[in-house]
């Protein structure tokens, strides 16, 4: 009988597949060998393009082959005169990458090859590229390769940003679990809607709208972290001015602490130092020898005498002039302090929105008191709205979070440290003390803002929860003479910075190794180490 | 019988409704000899879709055929367009040509009865419109059996409800909840929490969580969980498709079914078969025919009886015209089955279905792209039934461009018109007025009310080797039909696999066929062997 049907069994099917695979492997090996031989011989011809194309069509991620193709294309192109034929050459390369991207839409080298073709040829069709992005993002709205490529295309063809912004809206409404879309949106928000009058990063109404949108996402699915990240970014999108925080002059050292990281160039152009009302020239050196730093040492040739008059003049980027005059704290110790403030400054209408959102959060919290994200967001709202007013509640919430979300207890401890220090600093700046000690019962686990205390002569960090990770930060204590680190959790002194200390207390750091202390003493002979 | 074919079969299936067609496919799939016939000239029986002319024939048939009287009744057809005058017809005919070519969009076409007649083939009007849950029994069956290759679907684009006296979209997916402005942030969280918890319950957890809720209503449960009235409306009426009296566990199960089907194919959990629900039985018939079943339409049966043969085997004997057919198993619709072949339980009062079909000139709620809508109406009166509404447009192949079909159905209380008209009036303009009059509701052009017998509650079954199929039920999906077909198949051939995947052409090997000369590539020929 003819044409009788029989269905393949799975065994037969397996054998057939295996045979097919072997066959493919044979072809692959053969082609690769041939390609490499040709390359060795310098055969940069059409045949090489055909061979690499064949292999890439089923294995788009062999970047070596893409490199070889680029070499060949550059070579061939030189010998073509007609514009039309050059166009054709590049078009066929684009077709190949498109084919390869169909096989693997996340192929780094295929996207890169495409980028190369478009920047190399003289007649790129950017509109078509943008459409390609649309298609690929329709197939997978979270493919970050496509988003990345889209940003490249947009940077070249500059379509109306408004359209791009709306595109992200559309994609987010399809699926808001999309880091790429939120990120792209944040970039465009700053470009499209900066608040030029108020000097804020985002116009009020847009800031409000974004806060609303992202809260809606966060409440729809609190387990999706992309929304929370965007929300945190929005909360931080406030006006930030670079300011001098404190200025210390002693016969040994002149130092200036900043609230942000600044460069030597910035200081040279924006800051003037007057000794007895005469501008003094000198060299600015970062305390960590970094390009950007928040504590800078001023090397100058002035002699510091008993009744010297020192002041600095800082011209902010808003063209505001800050003048800080040093006061004499001790003989030969002159310190200038600025007004400091850690509170985020929002516009009235954004503040109203934040208060409303805080209300919703509180309602939710009543329903699900242990929900991590609701509690954390509530805490951030409280902190952002009025950090000192809500300080107690904020710390209580963070303590609860340590229990609810114990995997991130360290992060919450660090936040407590940071926000406690931010509360204490303005008070300390009112006093004329040259001493620092943590005034809160919560033990410090990290030392942010330490440059603010760069003027202190004695620093008491005893009985905190500090580990050896904090050691490099101590570099900010440039004036410090007596440092108490007893009762902490130090394990090593390896990263202890060079400081002009007189006394260092290391008692009750039970993990610290004696040998290491001996070594340290050896190295820092001038310091009296108590252990 | 005019044609010569065998007169002995293993299975004879009478009627080509959904259940019958699935059984026929399942039987011939495992190579039973199947004869499938239908007395009428088309497939589908009470599950059929008709073009406009076919529907007129159906209406006439129902009115004249006494055997149909108990099955389909209370038929009310109504035109809302005046009878076309002949001169108007010729005048408009010439105008029509103009409309097709060049009339600006936005001006609505004025429909005449003649247009329905001339475009009759563009209608596929369902007598039993139903949706498929994306993860429901039928979809899984279509996939596992690979009958899906004969089918085509469109996603339902939106789920609507009737809230505060107007139509409102129901946020049912994560993306909807995110995008909606109809509920507050806190409500979003509550809604998502409720939905995700319902999805998460397995059978055991469900029994546990709801052990005290056995005799309470779903509404009481939702209220207990603190949902706001808006949210209760969405969950109870739109997602669970229930009423105030729906029991808790039933509500949870219905919700779960809805939610589990989300996110597979579109933004709603539902699929609508292209060209109408009536296309589905035919797909099963097609597979059945591919596997050798014999098909015959226009084949009335004169008599059926069971007979014991000499070897003690019981067979069923059918007489059609001059021919006598025998089979081991007979499968047929309970409505057509002679009483003496049914088990002796008395025929109980059946709870029938009220149905209505409206043809309108626009959608019930405008949207950017052509919508495909499921609307679940809560009962307008306390204690009443919920009403299900489906609106389909030209993109589904159900009607000509410019028209929409709106299906209503609900369990029968009085008669179709009294049961459904109050609901239809809420969203459709059922006046006899001119099509040009302005109205905020779509103008109804034609309507049909009818009641259909629902035999799904019947406990009567066939005797001996007669298996009866119950007709269409009032549910939204096809689950009951699939379950029934499985039960019948299990009785006919216990232990056999129900519709295993059918193979495709490339999975077949043709035995005894000498293969042609093998194809070899040139480059292989030249160098391939050297390696």
3D architecture notes:
The complex is a heterodimer of chains A (531) and B (531). With 531 residues, chain A is of the alpha/beta class. Chain A folds into 4 domains: 182 residues, Serine Threonine Protein Phosphatase 5, Tetratricopeptide repeat, CATH 1.25.40.120; 94 residues, Immunoglobulin-like (Sandwich), CATH 2.60.40.1130; 63 residues; 98 residues, Leucine-rich repeat, LRR (right-handed beta-alpha superhelix) (Alpha-Beta Horseshoe), CATH 3.80.10.10. Chain A has 17 helices and 16 strands. In chain A, the strands form 3 sheets. Chain A has a 6-stranded antiparallel beta sheet with strand order 6-7-3-2-11-10. Chain A has a 5-stranded parallel beta sheet with strand order 12-13-14-15-16, with no helix packed on it. Chain A has a 4-stranded antiparallel beta sheet with strand order 5-4-8-9. In chain A, strand 4 and strand 5 form a beta hairpin. In chain A, helix 4 packs antiparallel against helix 5 and helix 15 runs antiparallel to helix 16. Chain A is elongated, with a radius of gyration of 32 Å. The mean pLDDT of chain A is 92. Chain B has 531 residues and is of the alpha+beta class. Chain B folds into 3 domains: 156 residues, 3-Layer(bba) Sandwich (FAD/NAD(P)-binding domain), CATH 3.50.50; 132 residues, Guanine Nucleotide Dissociation Inhibitor, domain 2, CATH 3.30.519; 122 residues, Guanine Nucleotide Dissociation Inhibitor, domain 1, CATH 1.10.405.10. Chain B contains 15 helices and 21 strands. In chain B, helix 1 links the parallel strand 1 and strand 2. The radius of gyration of chain B is 26 Å and the shape is globular. The termini of chain B are far apart. The C terminus of chain B is likely disordered. At the A-B interface, strand 1, helix 1, helix 10 and helix 13 of A face helix 6, helix 7 and strand 21 of B. Strand 1 of chain A pairs antiparallel with strand 21 of chain B, so a sheet runs across the interface.
